[in-house]
Amino acid sequence: MFSGKTKDREFLKVVGLSPKEIEWLHDKSRQQGIAPSLTSVRFRLHGQMLDRLMAKNRSVLDIAEEWISSSPQRFFFPHLLTITDAYGVVLHISGDSESLEQSERMLKIGVGSSLSISSAGTNAVSAAIELRRSAFILGNDHYLDVMKDWMTLCVPVWNEDLRPVAMVALFASRRISALLAYAALASIASVIETNFQRKNSNHKSWFSDAELMELLNQYEFSPREREIAFYWLLDYDTRRIGQMLGISENTVRVYVSKIHAKLNVNSKASFILRVLKGI
């Protein structure tokens, strides 16, 4: 039987961050021009942009909300439970009324808010995105001063190709047992992940990534053009492609124009039809 301290050490090995990782994330926060004194997240989607994002993530969101609404309450303390997309934009938020009101009023955290490092600095969601693993951040290790009374936990949800499709995160008082909170949060993420992968496997594309890349190899693309054409073929938008490849959205647009010109097409739809002709 593990002692309490042993369990805590094992927990921190799995989801804790080293001082070097914290400092690296703080440096990235500073590079994004975020001041620790910022009193709310920087970015929040509204209107049609938010509607498109919700529609794009409808599959995983439906699974998450169905499970949350049908399951017994797992957190008997003030908290925020959020489901974000793979880039940290909040798709669902729930919790006790006081925490919800406080987060909306003080930090502007609600559906459409971004918890990425460029919007909210170092927190468990941005850490999980940057480090590609579960993350736990306590108190003063948060970048924003207004988060330093909190504990944040985040567990990614992966698809069958080990790409993140969502983030399940908990915001609570730093006085709460992180070990117990993590166990409940990991359970939620596991249920969402299992159901998402099962549902997704029933709608598998007829073609593997390798087969799609083979279709693109018949055209005289540069390596970068072929890489962008691949994601364009999968119907990713220019912003998401830029984030995945670490280049600006404008640079992606320039490459897309070159790709369209080489295939003598003028839209994504005609590009997809051209590449998939005869299929």
From TrEMBL:
Protein name: HTH luxR-type domain-containing protein
The UniProt record lists the keyword Transcription: yes
An example molecular function term from Gene Ontology annotations: DNA binding
GO annotation terms (biological process): negative regulation of DNA-templated transcription
Pfam families: GerE (PF00196)
Gene3D superfamilies: 3.30.450.40, Winged helix-like DNA-binding domain superfamily/Winged helix DNA-binding domain
Domain HTH luxR-type intervals: 214-279
Keyword annotations of the record: Transcription, Transcription regulation
Superkingdom, natural source: Bacteria
Alphabetical list of CDD domains matching this protein: LuxR_C_like
Keyword set includes Transcription regulation: yes
UniProt signal peptide: none
PROSITE patterns: HTH_LUXR_2
Entries under InterPro entries matching the protein: GAF-like_dom_sf, Sig_transdc_resp-reg_C-effctor, Tscrpt_reg_LuxR_C, WH-like_DNA-bd_sf
